[in-house]
Design goal:
Order of helices and strands: EEEHHEEEEHEHHHEHHEEHHEHEHEE
Helix content: 40-55%
Structural class: alpha/beta
Strand order of the largest sheet: 2-1-4-5-6-7
Number of strands: 15
């Protein structure tokens, strides 16, 4: 997969910019807060249709304007495609190859990208929401119907929780019939979410273990465990079991004013040599494991599609030691279109710089190649 052009209008600090990507590696260089990350976020948005770091669509609109528009022209399996997203007053229009997509899920996975930022290095130390977000992004790129289940689950959960909180505030018992409608909807879409996450982990685990073994010269073994808030049957979850467990927890959820079981409460645990990484691993071990997981994501998408996704490296090289930088860049230099942001070029090898396009960025403006 290769991104050829990116067009931005009123996106974050970009009024209007066009970027052509010619070589396999592009380096965005500039001081902090100039727009390097925002440019990578724009590419990520074309892949995931949502903002990173918890930013809403409205927050991505440039201050003083009413809409933003992104357009990417890219090659996939030898064919050129155009993907355009326009956001205006709470509504999002997606046009793929001149045809409007009625649902976001129809366009999911068209342009695939893996984002790697310093925040990711704390993936297994941070909040569970970080790990769920990582896994959901991986699944969305591979399974077109996942976005449909994800959005319906999210909306039904919000409505159900709002109702439970209202009942709790009024000291009223929830209506069993009304509640059962929500529980069945949550079970329908929640089961699909859990099953898809487990299927993705089955693909990622062996790839991550292999990458991790190479980086640790066989001295360490990593394992990723899915921690489900519901009782699984092996590594499976049926809708009937989901409903039954929600029904059994109905009183607890009523007293808390929210649903406490489901994919919105699940987590991932990292084990290194059988021990919890969160409790026992060093910072270096954490970073090696996360890097192995990112490399596994690249290989997983390649195995499913026959093409590598784009790799977006947001100032991450400065956070890795020389050995890990070398392992990452060896892969990049050979196979994958990579867009790197950095504040300086000193950490990049001369031979890599010779093969790259270098784009200085300042105050939301992209200079000509130097």
């Amino acid at each position: 997969m290769q991104l050829k052009e990116l067009h931005l209008v009123n996106f974050t600090n970009y009024s209007k910019e066009e970027v052509a990507f010619g070589k396999k590696i592009t380096i965005l260089v500039g001081e902090n807060a100039q727009g390097k990350t925002n440019l990578l976020d724009a590419i990520s948005y074309l892949s995931s249709f949502s903002g990173r770091r918890g930013r809403t669509d409205a927050q991505l609109v440039q201050e003083g304007t009413e809409h933003f528009q992104l357009q990417g022209i890219f090659l996939a399996k030898g064919n050129e495609h155009k993907l355009q997203i326009t956001y205006y007053q709470g509504k999002k229009q997606i046009i793929f190859n001149e045809q409007e997509m009625k649902k976001v899920g129809e366009a999911t996975g068209k342009l695939q990208a893996i984002f790697f930022s310093p925040d990711d290095l704390y993936l297994f130390k941070g909040a569970p929401a970080m790990r769920r977000s990582f896994l959901d992004h991986e699944v969305m790129q591979a399974a077109g119907d996942y976005y449909f289940h994800y959005e319906h689950y999210r909306k039904n959960l919000a409505s159900c929780n709002a109702y439970l909180k209202q009942c709790l505030k009024k000291y009223a018992r929830p209506d069993d019939l009304l509640l059962s409608v929500w529980l069945n909807k949550l079970a329908e879409h929640g089961t699909a979410i859990v099953e898809a996450r487990l299927a993705m982990l089955r693909k990622l685990r062996p790839l991550a273990r292999l990458a991790h073994r190479k980086m640790t010269e066989g001295k360490e073994e990593m394992e990723i465990v899915y921690v489900c808030s519901l009782v699984l049957e092996g590594e499976q979850l049926s809708k009937e079991s989901f409903v039954a467990q929600l029904e059994a927890s109905k009183e607890e959820n009523r007293l808390r004013g929210m649903i406490m079981q489901g994919p919105h409460r699940d987590d991932l645990t990292l084990l290194i040599n059988g021990k919890s990484a969160k409790e026992y691993a060093s910072q270096g071990q954490h970073r090696t494991a996360v890097l192995a997981l990112k490399l596994a994501s690249l290989e997983s998408i390649y195995a499913q599609t026959g093409e590598y996704p784009l790799l977006l490296l947001d100032d991450v090289l400065s956070e890795l030691d020389a050995g890990r930088r070398e392992q990452l860049m060896q892969l990049v230099n050979k196979k994958i279109q990579t867009i790197i942001s950095c504040t300086g070029l000193e950490l990049l090898q001369p031979e890599l710089l010779a093969e790259a396009d270098i784009l200085p960025i300042s105050q939301g403006k992209i200079s000509l190649q130097v």
